[in-house]
Design brief:
CATH superfamily: Vaccinia Virus protein VP39
Number of domains: 1
Order of helices and strands: HHEHEHEEHEHHEE
Number of helices: 7
CATH topology: Rossmann fold
Distance between the termini: 44 Å
CATH architecture: 3-Layer(aba) Sandwich
Strand content: 15-25%
Length: 227
Amino acid sequence: MTILSPSVLRALERFHASRPWDHNAHYHPWIMRQLPRRYGRVLDVGCGSGDLARLLARRSASSVLGIDSDPGIVEKARAREAGFPGAPVTFSVVDAMTGPADGVDGSYDVVTCVAVIHHLPFADALVSFRRQLAPGGTLVVVGVARAESCVDHLLGIVALPANVVMAWVKNRGRRAVRPVAMTARTRAPEMGFAEVVREARRVLPGCRVRRRLFWRYTLVWRQPTGS
């Protein structure tokens, strides 16, 4: 379903190429609002350059582990490791489906995953995250789904002018720098939002899944304390 003409799309692409901003980082403050004031061990899956992991460390009473399958981007995260407040942060090259080498079932109070789960077998990834959560722990996912329904396309239309405004505001008065997240390998999502909701509720009963602006959805789930 194409709403805009090719010439308009090309103009938008040129605009955003000159004024890039990180759609994923936009949701970092929202992620922090879903979490307790203080928590213990944290696992950030698909950590990228480590910005979210360092933000999570500020409220962790234990430690934060960021994992990513891309050795190059993990090196960039490690290069910025020192000098940040909060709990110790470690970055490791790990396949998300394999899990951290030092992790055991139920060992993390918080698991986060931003714009990565569409690269993974969705249901299997959620099962893995659920297994690694401690009783009472919180899982927060920011994902990308394929636009299918009228609501999806309407949100996409609304996001276009909002995206232009955000790009203008975030780059105003400073030299535009391409976010590291925009240099990572990308893959188009295969699942639509309806399938995401169906599979998520099957694996994680009671989870909250919501459509969001800027071509994202969010998922929040808390491990029952009796687990």
